[in-house]
């Protein structure tokens, strides 16, 4: 079931009951077309390196035979040396239509963008809930959003959710171990929970311009791509309602984006200079990395097939 932006009561009720809600006609074709221009510029970049969401490490930009970027990109709104792509992504995730819907779900006027991602193709994401990685303090108030930049085909490796799983037991990260070092154990527990509760995975075949909102306790992920001819162009963003802290982390200073109701982390000139130097280090990390070394805490579901 999906809704239109003006159906405010229905949107909030459905979100609270099922742990997610799909709203159509949120992002305009004009916004997506501008993003596509930035995307084309990015694809032409030679020897470009970035942090990837699916492997949780630095990767080189690789365009495959179908002309899709192979790895997902972590925090596209902060990419170094990619101003057009960066701004066109921010235009979508910080749009007025998004802030209005967030206000409906959280009853807070302002929201801080915590983390963003870009997927050109589905990398297959292992089932998880966001609370383990990032959440508000107190927990349970973060909102995740997935933006369909094209109509999603069933063979493209769609996003999936487990409706109402946010009402069941969620699995917290062990605060007594180093950050995320028990990730494999967490993934196993989620898989066992799915089996024990006999959960079914519901695919999200969104239409272009639609947005999926979900609760941080909701179990979700993405199916593997089964037809390489299909892309799954999409953005993901996580929003922290203003007034809450970050679970397990300090709350950095914020500034308004072009939308005064959507805030981003404040970056000084020194921070930006460090980002430029860091990009040079990314090149070294990839060049010196052993080809058979498995990433730590990767999210690709194919790497957990034995669980």
What does this structure look like?
With 307 residues, the chain is α+β, with helices and mostly antiparallel strands. 27% of the residues lie in helices and 21% in strands. The protein contains six helices and 17 strands. Strands 1, 2, 5, 6, 9, 12, 14, 16 and 17 form a nine-stranded mixed sheet that branches. It has a four-stranded antiparallel sheet with strand order 7-13-10-11. α2 runs antiparallel to α3. The longest helix is centred in the C-terminal third of the chain and has 20 residues, at 269-288. The protein is globular.
Summary keywords:
four-stranded antiparallel sheet, 307 residues, 21% strand, 6 helices, alpha+beta
Element layout with pairings:
Layout lengths: L1 E2 L4 H11 L1 E4 L5 H15 L5 E3 L6 E3 L12 E2 L8 H11 L2 H11 L4 E9 L5 E4 L7 E2 L5 E6 L10 E3 L21 H14 L5 E3 L6 E4 L5 E3 L11 E8 L3 E2 L7 E3 L5 E4 L3 H20 L19
